[in-house]
Sequence to fold (204 residues):
Amino acid sequence: MLRLGETERIEIAGGIAWRPLRRPLGVTAFGANAYTADAGEEVIEEHDETGAGAGGHEEMYVVMSGRAQFTIDGEEIDADAGTFVFIPERSARRHAVASEDGTAILAIGGPAGAALPVSPWEYWMAAEPAYQAGDYERAIEIASEGLEDYPDHGHLHYQLACYHALAGHMDEALQHLRRAYEIEPKTREWAAGDSDVDSVRDLV
Fold:
């Protein structure tokens, strides 16, 4: 654990206050650093991700406190606390100036695609709004994307069995439910009290 106020303050690029996070925390999956500034001060130096010192990263900036005026390839973005600014293009020029005292920005970056695949849970959680709305076809569409990276994930197959059963696709529901049982035996316990699979539970 590391608090922002406990980080080392290193002045770079003509006075920008860099607060290293990745190195002291030992993060190896992505780049992560913070920057702080008061009103009128440069908080993110102008740069792109194609230079000699750049990592060629996609970058996301999170305004943790204060406010900053970002300029991305000439486009102005007024970002208050809680704003996420994502820049996928490596060649995009980016720069930010603090608009308020006590501005702090978290910068997260990594090569495009390096962090994939995403965790399996993200697929069925992304399908949750469609499921809650009764749009089971859409829930199936979203959750099925996860099978490309996780073809043998029991929980994912179980969720798809639920969506297919609710959508009236009995054959597909049975196929996913059987696969879930094979991969993850505890899904049998889930199914025992889950009304989503009432239509197929006794057919497995």
Q: What stands out?
A: The beta strands are 10-12, 16-20, 31-37, 42-47, 57-65, 67-72, 75-80, 84-87, 94-98, 103-111. The chain has seven helices and ten strands. The CA atoms of residues 32 and 108 lie 5 Å apart. Helices lie at 22-25, 121-126, 128-132, 136-144, 154-167, 170-183, 187-192.
